[in-house]
Amino acid sequence: MEDFSDLILNETAMLASVTVIDIGLALLLTTVFNGILAKLYMMTHGGYSYSKSFVQALILVGITVALIMVIIGSDIARAFALVGAMSIVRFRTPVKDTKDLVFLFASIAVGMACGTQFYEFAGIFVGFMLIIVLAMHYGRFGDVKEEGYVLKMRMRTGDREYISKLCQDMCERFSVVSVSRMESGDNMEDIVYEVHLKRGIKYDQLVDTLSKAVDPLSISLLVGEGTVNA
């Protein structure tokens, strides 16, 4: 009985030590820090998978985590109870970009730091993220020097050798991905190349050159993911 009374008193004392000001400060700073992270994500995002709801979620997830950390405090029983409750929820939203996952973890980390009153650590982390991400973005860290494309053409079978010669002049390297012949027997084929352009050569120059040289029935150029992100 005494042990139970001591447990109740300890719980009450711990709850009393957390004031409304502490909770408000944790939520406010989490909102500010994760707002900076969300703005950083918007500035440096590349590609076609931008989502407004994901940017908003970066802030809301951090706020939620901050409140959870304030509630848990240093109580192990609450932590295990939270794990049991959260195990019921199934999150099935796919993350299209690895960088999105990094920002999501960063938002959670900021919420955890603010929820446990490590405000200075959260501020240092956000500042460090700001410097590193901007440096990589504007320094184009990770970009390759050559641009890769997928070239698809429908042309006469006898023109393949001439096309290969033109590609050799304009590309660092190229390779045939697939060839399919037309069943009608009209000496036409669909051929797919993977091409990496030389420095200074633009994709529209390649398309114009090939179109004028062999007059294909159709020609299409698919842009690689790295080029889309640029």
Give the ordered list of helices and strands: HHHHHHEHEEHEH
Q: Helical element count? A: 9
Q: Estimate percent helicity.
A: 55-70%
Number of strands: 4
User: Which stretches are low in confidence, meaning pLDDT under 50 for 5 or more residues running?
Assistant: 4-9, 11-16
- Taken together, the total number of domains comes to 2
Q: What does the average pLDDT come to?
A: 77
* N- to C-terminal distance: 67 Å
Global morphology = elongated
Secondary-structure content class: alpha+beta
- Tell me the strand order in the biggest sheet: 2-3-1-4
What about the largest sheet? 4 strands, antiparallel
The Rg value, from CA coordinates, equals: 28 Å
Q: What fraction strand?
A: 15-25%
Describe the protein.
With 230 residues, this protein is an alpha+beta fold. It folds into two domains: 137 residues, no CATH class; 82 residues, Alpha-Beta Plaits, CATH 3.30.70.260. The protein has nine helices and four strands, in the order ααααααβαββαβα. Strands 2-3-1-4 form a four-stranded antiparallel β-sheet. Strand 2 and strand 3 form a beta hairpin. About 5% of the residues have low confidence.
Concise synopsis of the structure shown:
This protein is α+β, with helices and mostly antiparallel strands and 230 residues long.
Descriptive key words:
230 residues, four-stranded antiparallel sheet, Alpha-Beta Plaits
List the helices and strands and how they pair.
Blueprint: H1 2-17, H2 20-44, H3 52-72, H4 76-86, H5 98-115, H6 119-138, E1 148-156, H7 160-170, E2 171-181, E3 188-197, H8 203-214, E4 218-223, H9 225-229
Antiparallel strand pairs: 1-3, 1-4, 2-3
Helix pairs in contact: 2-3, 2-5, 2-6, 3-5, 5-6, 7-8
